[in-house]
Design brief:
Distance between the termini: 28 Å
Order of helices and strands: HHHHHHHHHHHHH
Number of helices: 13
Keywords: Membrane, Transmembrane, Transmembrane helix
Low-confidence stretches: 126-131, 133-138, 140-145
Number of strands: 0
Membrane topology: Multi-pass membrane protein
Radius of gyration: 24 Å
GO cellular component, one term: membrane
Mean pLDDT: 79
Main location: membrane
Structural class: mainly alpha
Protein name: Permease
Number of domains: 2
Helix content: over 70%
């Protein structure tokens, strides 16, 4: 290799190392881009009504801030109160589930094979699995920039991106060779369309799951149903893993009242997830956004391993973007012409 090639390889290695060190900051910027893409869709909708660009942006930001303020005032206080009570009741519910499992063993087998009430191995294993994941998320939100500061920075960056998206888009495009810049512009447009479709489908699915959980749990008389419903809606953001995790708190709390109520909660959540999987998500998601379940799960494992809890939350939009770039830049621009030449 020539000296110039060695120097280029060294620069590439240094660049990759810097990107790795600021990976959480890059995730934060990506989250801001998601917010900006969503708000830009609203701006484009208002522009169809012959509203000026500046006025459309101002109306969008005003509506966005009004919605956030309303949600904070209306939802946060009751959720905080119920969540504190949920934390206190959860250990008692876990013990109730353990006693119920022991009674079930005695009725079916006539003997106790596993002492769930006194054996804390399962609970300790769950803690050992959750602690690294939570610690990475806490490091992201608190050690990196701070919890509140991270949210504020995401919103500020989103507003900046929204105010002049063309400037940031052109700045990104200019890092590519001149002959490929038009192609990059096309790829970015497809990423934007796919991300908006994903956000529309995700927000719709989260709302439906939260509302159905609220109605079902309230009819069953499960305590803290508002907190459970909100957790179910938020956790639905994480495919595969989120719905399973959101099932645990209401099931455990319901077991404090009666075993049949815990079973009813499991059945309720099963039907809610089936409704989401077979009716809501297919209706609002574009066909081009359909990802194989195995690919989605692998993406979650990959991004969680290297990026922690933020990577788990943003795994699906990251996968959407990666899939577009792989299909367009790698497959269509490199592999397909290569095959034709062969």
């Amino acid at each position: 290799m020539k000296i110039g090639e060695w120097f280029g390889l060294l620069i590439l290695g240094i660049s990759l190392y810097i990107l790795w060190e600021i990976r959480f900051l890059l995730l934060l910027v990506f989250a801001a881009i998601l917010v900006a893409v969503a708000l830009d869709g609203v701006v484009n909708f208002l522009r169809r009504w012959r509203i000026s660009q500046g006025m459309a942006i101002a109306l969008t930001l005003f509506a966005f801030l009004a919605i956030i303020t309303t949600l904070v005032i209306v939802i946060v206080p009751p959720f905080s109160k119920e969540f504190e009570e949920l934390v206190k009741l959860f250990p008692k519910g876990f013990q109730a589930v353990a006693r119920w499992l022991e009674e079930l063993q005695m009725r079916i087998l006539g003997e106790t094979l596993f002492d769930f009430a006194t054996n804390g191995d399962l609970f300790r294993q769950l803690q050992s699995f959750a602690n690294p994941l939570l610690s990475r998320g806490i490091n992201f939100f608190f050690d990196t920039l701070g919890g509140v500061l991270s949210v504020i920075l995401i919103l500020v960056l989103a507003v900046m991106f929204l105010a002049d998206p063309a400037a940031y888009r052109q700045g990104f495009i200019r890092i590519f060779p001149s002959f490929y810049r038009n192609r990059v512009h096309t790829i970015l447009k497809r990423c934007e369309v796919n991300l908006r479709a994903w956000m529309l489908g995700t927000l719709t699915a989260m709302s439906v799951v939260g509302i159905l959980s609220f109605i079902g749990l309230s009819l069953l008389g499960v305590r803290l149903y508002f907190a459970h419903a909100l957790i179910s809606g938020l956790f639905n953001l994480i495919p595969n893993i989120g719905p399973t995790l959101s099932l645990i708190p209401p099931t455990v709390i319901a077991s404090l009242d009666a075993p049949w109520k815990a079973i009813a909660v499991v059945i309720l959540y099963f039907f809610i997830q089936q409704t989401d999987a077979y009716f809501v998500t297919p209706y609002v998601m574009s066909q081009q956004l359909e990802l194989p379940p195995a690919l989605t799960l692998m993406a979650q494992i990959f991004f969680t391993t290297f990026l922690g809890l933020p990577g788990l939350i943003l795994a699906l939009p990251l996968m959407v973007v990666c899939r577009v770039w792989i299909e367009e830049a790698l497959v269509k621009d490199i592999l397909d012409p290569w095959q034709q030449r062969g």
